[in-house]
Amino acid sequence: MPEGPTIVILCEEAAHLVGMRIKEASGNTQLDAARFVGRKIVALRSWGKHFLVEFDRFTLRVHFLLFGRYAIDSERKGATPRLHLAGARGELNLYASALRLIEEPLDEVYDWRGDVMSDAWSPSLARRKLAERPNLLACDALLDQDVFAGVGNIIKNEVLFRIRVHPASRVGALPPVRRNAMVREARTYAFEFLKWKKANVLKRHLLVHAREECPECAGPIELATLGTTKRRAFFCPRCQVRYGDGAHARKRTTRRRAG
């Protein structure tokens, strides 16, 4: 599933299509493709995991779900796109995606303060929303798009390891310093993800996600499906403290790799 930084990259890759008037529109979609013909793309934006293609009277919202993908210009993948848009400057092909039209102004639909990639990101708003969700598990809290729009499973796992919080911790049981660290690192890691993804070096920077050995204590990384989101959690049970349900009584122990 694309995460917020990936959608930012898509906006950059497709930036040359801004200002283009659509001449062709088709695809395997329930949307009226003819409505796009003759319309001009006025902007490309992102909110969390949503790719937003603004036209003069409406906006196309694209959610790539788990397996969605895209192709720009001559990179068509062969399969029939969910939506194909083309004009004089190039083409955009969207596959296996959830599409809908937004008729309202985007500022009435989205609170940009909740997007970890946005200049309007508000850490104080995120902290307040976490305080309102004390029973959430930490792994669910980071994937809550109302709190951390743009955070996906990779960012979740890496942030929790950075702040040494077990994914099954209760948000309300976290010490304030840990909750604050969660908010801070969600944004910090998202921008590092963006930098590494652009340089095609993201995988080499992953500490626990899809790893087998903890870089801190050299013990085995555990994998579990946790929370209401039922997403994969990679974590170190020795270095990441579990808060809540009496679990914090267990002492944290670490050992460093020899040499």
UniProtKB/TrEMBL annotation:
GO biological process, one term: base-excision repair
Pfam families (UniProt xref): Fapy_DNA_glyco, H2TH
Reaction equation(s) it catalyzes: Hydrolysis of DNA containing ring-opened 7-methylguanine residues, releasing 2,6-diamino-4-hydroxy-5-(N-methyl)formamidopyrimidine
Keywords: DNA damage, DNA repair, DNA-binding, Endonuclease, Glycosidase, Hydrolase, Lyase, Metal-binding, Multifunctional enzyme, Nuclease, Zinc, Zinc-finger
Database matches in InterPro entries: FPG_cat, FPG_N, H2TH_FPG, Ribosomal_uS13-like_H2TH, Znf_DNA_glyclase/AP_lyase
Family under the similarity heading: Belongs to the FPG family.
Protein name per UniProt: Endonuclease
Organism: Tahibacter soli
